[in-house]
């Protein structure tokens, strides 16, 4: 029998995975995730990963999928309240030839707060392996560089939704990496944890703890269809309420 590898399954009804990592990233930002969406052009915006508090003054950034399939990086460089939205110039599902509820893909957003020409750049990418990246559309440039960006700390990083569980993702999230410049800050790999019966939290390799709220941990031998977690929760089992999956990692 093939190894059942777990992942996070989210159905868009208040699901969120929250970290205890709260340190603000004040310079260049690089966000990457391996995902599979149930609908790449869903009727609502979907959150991949964010550092975005409920309180308006405590917002830093959010990496999103728009209803037209484009990627968006929203940043709050001035005051933690005023959003600056930067969207990919091409839809992800079109460029990567993705099929709804079938294809998983790596996505990436890179923020260069000072491009050397008195502006800031956002570049979007996609990848099939998380190593070799293809730029999604063209570079999105803003004329004024981000200076003195001091996003508030003490706000949790979240996966699959904003901090108040709004703009929930619908599908699967496998892995997430967030860099401050070139320094890796969080790297939850939900496919490589040991999830035992009743577990609702796990640590990433750096030591950050990630806690599930409503989100399910599911293990399938064949993970090609993003519909499966919502239609088949008994066979194969939902790990949090059934048998543990023995993989390398730490659990709580």
Structure overview:
- Helix content is 3%, strand content 37%.
- With 252 residues, it is mainly β.
- It has one domain: Jelly Rolls (Sandwich), CATH 2.60.120.
- Strands 1, 3, 8, 9, 10, 11, 13, 14 and 17 form a nine-stranded antiparallel β-sheet that branches. Strands 7-6-5-4-12-2-16-15 form an eight-stranded antiparallel β-sheet, with no helix packed on it.
- A hairpin with a 7-residue loop joins strand 8 and strand 9.
- The longest helix is centred in the middle third of the chain and has 4 residues, at 92-95.
Secondary structure layout plus pairing:
Elements: E1 5-11, E2 16-19, E3 29-37, E4 46-52, E5 59-65, E6 71-75, E7 84-87, H1 92-95, E8 105-112, E9 120-127, E10 134-135, E11 140-142, E12 158-159, E13 170-180, E14 183-186, E15 201-203, E16 209-213, E17 216-220, H2 228-231
Antiparallel strand pairs: 1-13, 1-17, 2-12, 2-16, 3-8, 3-13, 4-5, 4-12, 5-6, 6-7, 8-9, 9-10, 9-11, 13-14, 15-16
């Amino acid at each position: 029998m093939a190894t059942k590898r777990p992942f996070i399954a989210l159905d868009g009804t208040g699901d969120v995975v929250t970290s205890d990592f709260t340190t603000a990233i004040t310079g260049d930002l690089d966000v990457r995730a391996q995902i599979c969406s149930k609908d790449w052009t869903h009727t609502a915006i979907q959150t991949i990963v964010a550092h975005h508090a409920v309180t308006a003054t405590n917002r830093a950034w959010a990496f999103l999928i728009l209803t037209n399939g484009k990627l968006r990086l929203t940043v709050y460089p001035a005051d933690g309240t005023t959003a600056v939205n930067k969207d990919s110039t091409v839809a992800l599902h079109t460029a990567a030839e993705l099929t709804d509820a079938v294809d998983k893909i790596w996505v990436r957003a890179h923020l260069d707060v000072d491009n050397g020409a008195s502006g800031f750049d956002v570049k979007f990418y996609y990848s099939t392996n998380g190593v070799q990246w293809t730029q999604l559309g063209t570079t999105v440039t803003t004329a004024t560089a981000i200076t003195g960006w001091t996003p508030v700390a003490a706000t949790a990083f979240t996966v699959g939704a904003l901090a108040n569980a709004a703009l929930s993702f619908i599908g699967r999230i496998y892995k997430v990496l967030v860099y401050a410049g070139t320094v890796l800050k969080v790297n939850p790999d939900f496919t490589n944890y040991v999830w035992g019966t009743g577990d609702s939290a796990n640590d990433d390799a750096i030591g950050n703890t990630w806690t599930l709220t409503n989100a399910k941990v599911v293990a399938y031998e064949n993970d090609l269809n993003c519909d499966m977690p919502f239609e088949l929760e008994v066979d194969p089992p939902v790990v949090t309420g059934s048998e543990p999956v023995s993989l390398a990692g730490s659990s709580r």
